[in-house]
Amino acid sequence: MALLTPQGVKKVFQFQKPEGREYLRKLLNWGEFDEVRDSRTSILLDTLYDSLIFAVGKGFPWTKVALVVRFTEELLQETKGCSITEAIIVLANKLRDYQEQFNMIHLLALCDYFHNTFLRHYKLYQYVLGQDQDVNLSIAYLDVCTPPQPLPLSQGVDQEVWKHEQQVAELDAAQVQKRTNVLLLKEALKLEREHRLQKMFSGVLQQQQHEGLRKEELENLINEAIHIQIECLKELLQYEIQITFDILDLKLQKKTLNLNAPVPFPLSIMGQPQQDELLKSTKASKGKKGKAKK
Q: Are residues 178 and 119 in the same domain?
């Protein structure tokens, strides 16, 4: 409390509450503490800070404001473990001890303050400040994902128009996927054909090294190779025909969508100059109609 000077308490009052509490802690020569885990020290600091604010609000001189803080700290210390009756006696004795340092108005204000705060909630003060508490605290860190920055309203479109654009985009994507599937099938059939031909020719080459090939065997070899080629081409052709029909169906759906496309509100698709021209022409037409009626 030695560092609590009139200049110090004045500076505490000039700060906002968080900075004022921190500055008061330094004036009291308290070490740093965890506001969450050391709740007792935090509440005690709040009590001293509130008494300082009370004294300033009641017009105590700066020298007396420092005394109010000291008075509060001593009262809290001397009433630890006391009953409510004993606490009232301690408060009365302290007011008597300080009567030479405060005038009667300030003593009455001080008495009312502690009666309405400290004594009214005395059991709570005793429970929090008078005994050790078992604190079971768990801390969880959660990542909060903020929504993306919205685009300017000038880039917005009508809801029905947006839905139409999404449906068209889905049809376009489906067409691209169909064509991609054809290319993938071509590559797969090519690999399968090469594998089957390689397997067939490998067996023939082994036989040729031992016995040689007769005319009939060579014809069968050629026919088998042709058969493999035809099978692969047949499968590819069937798939391409099916894909072609699917793509045509998608194009028909897209054409139908475009024919039934929603019409946006005129002003929503115009630029600002066009809107201004439209408003001017509307006002001019109204003026002409008014003159015609006259």
A: no
d(CA 36, CA 137): 9
Instruction: Indicate if the pLDDT at residue 29 is higher than 50.
Output: yes
Domain, as residue range, for 169: 158-262
Residue 265 above 70 pLDDT? no
User: Over 80: is that where the pLDDT of 138 sits?
Assistant: no
- The domain total for the chain is 2
User: CB under 8 Å to 25, separation ≥6 — which residues?
Assistant: 32, 45
Closest by CA to 262, choosing from 154, 168, 155, is 168
Q: How far apart are CA 146 and CA 144, in angstroms?
A: 6
DSSP string, 168-224: HHHHHHHHHHHHHHHHHHHHHHHHHHHHHHHHHHHHHHHHHHHT---HHHHHHHHHH
Structure tokens at 250: 């998608």
Q: Specify which of 34-38, 248-252, 283-287 reaches the highest per-range mean pLDDT.
A: 248-252
**Same domain, yes or no: 199 and 256:** yes
Mean pLDDT along residues 177-182:
86
Whether 145 is covered by a domain: the verdict is no
Residue 227 lies in a domain: yes
Q: If DSSP codes are grouped into helix, strand and coil, which group holds residue 264?
A: coil
